[in-house]
Structure formats: C-alpha cells, structure tokens
Amino acid sequence: MRGNGDVPDRPSMAQRKATPDVVKLDKKKGQSFLLVSKMKHVIIHVGTLKVELPMKEKPDVLQGTLALMVLKTLDLLGPQHGYGIARRIEQISGDLLDVNQGTLYPLLLKLEHEGSIASQWGASENNRRARFYRLTAAGRRQLQAETRDWEQTAAIIARFFKVKTEDLA
C-alpha cells in the first residue's frame, strides 16, 4: 500500500514478467486465483478488487531474422518505405511480431551499406515524402543463401521435437 492507504502498490516490471498470468480477486484476506495463460497482463484496480487481465504478447524477433524478413518482404512486394515494410512484416506474421522502428531503420541503413538493398526518395500513398527501399541483385543472392540456412536450421530443430527416448536407445 502507498502512504494514503487506499491505492495498492503496483508490481515492478520484474515482478510482472516473473509471475504467471492469473486473475486475482483480492477481497481483504480471502483470495481466488484463476490461471489463464502464459501471457503478459495488465492490472486494473476496481474498488477493493485487483483484477489482472491477459494482454497479447508479441515475442522478440530472433537475432538475424529481421534482415531476412525485410529482404523477403521486398522480394515479394517490391519497393516499400520503412513504415510499409514494418507493417507488412507484422501483417505476414499474423500480428504476432511487433517491428520496432528503432531497430528497423538502422537495419535498413546497414543493408543498404552492404549493398543488399538500395533506396530513393519518393511519395507515399498519402503523398508524403518517404524513402523507398528495393532489393538489389546482391540482396536477392543473400536472401537465397539465408533462406537455405534457415530451412536447414528449422529442419534440424524439428528433428529434436520429433525424437523420442526409444529412438536414442
């Protein structure tokens, strides 16, 4: 409780991430718990009740995969501006991924510096000035090589999920 005694303390970020997601009903000393899922949650204070509701969690993009997703998006859709690339990646993932602009734009600069993509200024759909990125021939080769590597990695990981104890005897 805080100093005024009527507003419960909020848990720290570490506590929110470390605790399982449950709906808690705090009624003085009696408590009820309902396990809902392994998702992040939001706490809503309603009178003497403290209710924790699940929120959709978007996992972090694995290191090295964002570049592959950018290259594939440009391969599929042709030239796109940065915001459009981010939205398409989120859309293709079924909104399971959240592309951070602070991560995307430095990556676009890196890919352009490496020669995988090229850019030029143009007008967006709403007639605003935007930088449009397109895949280069070197980027197409990089996409093919990285696609082969990821398919091989996925096949190896799939074998680990399929193996049973008796298979190892």
Percentage beta strand: 25-35%
Instruction: Report the strand count.
Output: 7
Tell me the structural class. alpha+beta
Largest sheet: 3 strands, antiparallel
List segments where confidence is low: pLDDT < 50 over at least 5 consecutive residues.
Answer: 1-8, 10-39, 41-46
User: For the CA atoms, what is the radius of gyration?
Assistant: 23 Å
Mean residue pLDDT: 76
Our measurement of the CA-to-CA distance between the termini, rounded to an integer number of angstroms, reads 57 Å
Percent helix: 40-55%
> What overall geometry do the principal axes of the alpha carbons give?
elongated
Largest sheet strand order: 5-7-6
State the order of secondary-structure elements, H for helix, E for strand: HEEEEHEHHEEHH
If helices are DSSP runs of H or I spanning 4 or more residues, what is the number of helices?
6
User: Which oligomerization state do the chains in this entry correspond to?
Assistant: single chain
Short description:
The chain contains six helices and seven strands. It has helices spanning 13-18, 65-77, 82-92, 101-114, 137-162, 165-168; strands spanning 21-27, 30-37, 41-46, 49-54, 80-81, 117-123, 129-135. The termini are far apart.
Give an overview of the whole structure:
The structure is a single chain. The longest helix has 26 residues. Helix 2 packs across helix 5. By secondary structure, the chain is α+β, with helices and mostly antiparallel strands. Helices cover 44% and strands 25% of the residues. The protein has a three-stranded antiparallel sheet. Strands 1-2 form a two-stranded antiparallel sheet. It starts with 12 loop residues before the first helix and ends with a helix. The protein contains six helices and seven strands.
